[in-house]
Inverse folding.
């Protein structure tokens, strides 16, 4: 009978702990979907911003070298922002590497283009490993090894 006050004290202490356990469990279950939704919104906002920032460079590049997005009969779905951003990056890069043209971008535009490429590759996104640049691929073994900026060499 002497343990009755101790049991009441323990019972009083356990009631809030049961409630806190339930609350933290619910927060844990709701946390992942909420975090994913927040990250998706954040990525969408960043994609929208990059599309808008690349627009003038893309227009200049497609004026010099029209890309597939200017072909009426081509099926290029540009309603989705990620697809549009990808198309912009590809067509700007195509204009830059076409030796028949003289399309140059300044350092700020080049940095913006590289930021858009990293965004498309998922760099900086939690859970995605760091994206390797082509020069970092030199660790690949075999008869063909990549050379930075010059394709592959034996």
């Amino acid at each position: 009978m002497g343990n009755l006050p101790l049991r009441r004290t323990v019972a009083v202490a356990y009631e809030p702990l049961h409630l806190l356990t339930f609350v933290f469990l619910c927060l844990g279950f709701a946390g992942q979907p909420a975090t994913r939704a927040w990250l998706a919104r954040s990525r969408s906002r960043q994609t929208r911003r990059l599309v808008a920032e690349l627009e003038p460079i893309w227009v200049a590049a497609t004026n010099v070298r029209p890309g597939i997005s200017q072909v009426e009969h081509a099926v290029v779905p540009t309603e989705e922002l990620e697809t549009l951003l990808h198309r912009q990056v590809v067509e700007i890069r195509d204009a830059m590497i076409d030796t028949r043209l003289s399309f140059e971008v300044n350092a700020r535009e080049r940095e913006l283009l590289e930021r858009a490429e990293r965004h498309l590759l998922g760099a900086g996104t939690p859970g995605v490993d760091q994206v390797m640049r082509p020069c970092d691929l030199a660790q690949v073994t075999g008869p063909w090894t990549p050379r930075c900026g010059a394709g592959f060499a034996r």
Observations:
- The two ends are 87 Å apart (CA to CA).
- The beta strands are 145-146, 152-153.
- Helices lie at 4-64, 81-97, 107-121.
